[in-house]
Predict the structure.
Amino acid sequence: MPELPEVETTRRGLEPLLVGRRIRTAVVRDRRLRLPVPRRLPELVAGKTVRALARRGKYLLADCGTGTLIVHLGMSGRLWVVRDGAAPAAHDHFDLVMDDGTVVRLRDPRRFGLVLWQAGEALSHRLLKGIGPEPLSAEFDGAALHAATRGRSAPIKHVLMDSRAVAGVGNIYASEALFRAGIRPGAAAGRLTRARCALLAEKVRETLEVAIVAGGSSLRDYVSSDGLAGNYQSQFLVYDRAGEPCRRCGTPIKGIRQGQRSTYYCPKCQKA
Ligand SMILES: [Zn+2]
């Protein structure tokens, strides 16, 4: 599943190709994504110039002046760039065609992705309204995390993955950040001290930044927008490493089920 670093890598790859350029048209081959792609989308975007390409959580936001094209990659989506005329394959549900012949193509086999249009202020869209602070912004710090965890008996990993507490941190990077901070994924969120919240907020940021620099992970079929697979996966500290030695202390990494998700931690380096 594309996580925040993959989405940010995609954003950075697409930004120079889209911003300041005019959209010729959009091609919708299959409207049946998580929500239906608006029927009028091609006419809404045709002739518009992309003013900025932003990201909120795992949503990409192409500001077109009168409104915003909102794209989410869902479980299996990826965006890549092809030249005008390149034949679409199965699952290539959507193209954004720029006036210079650049085509941004969405391939999404499981169709949990989204392609939507929001007139006016993008952040007023119902999917974006309740999202918490961006983990890479100054808004997300120890104080914010401490406030978000008070009164919560849920495991800290669940809170990190709750987009109301912090935007766009998924299973992989929550696990990795908790290792870096020395905190067990099952620790009760509401019992973390101010100091541990501050350390964890710092490690969330650090984990995401390292992954973005590495180009995002290359789990499953993810390929970054220039077609190159990311190479963060080989650097995972705990994620998907059950039974392998901890990179810090050598203790075998534990793999457990937490809620519906796989969780990995070092029983020696991480404390409840
Ligand atoms: Zn360890």
Summary: Residues 256 and 263 are 5 Å apart (CA to CA). Strands lie at 23-28, 52-56, 59-63, 67-72, 78-83, 92-98, 102-107, 114-119, 254-258, 261-265. Residues 194-213 form the longest helix (20 residues).
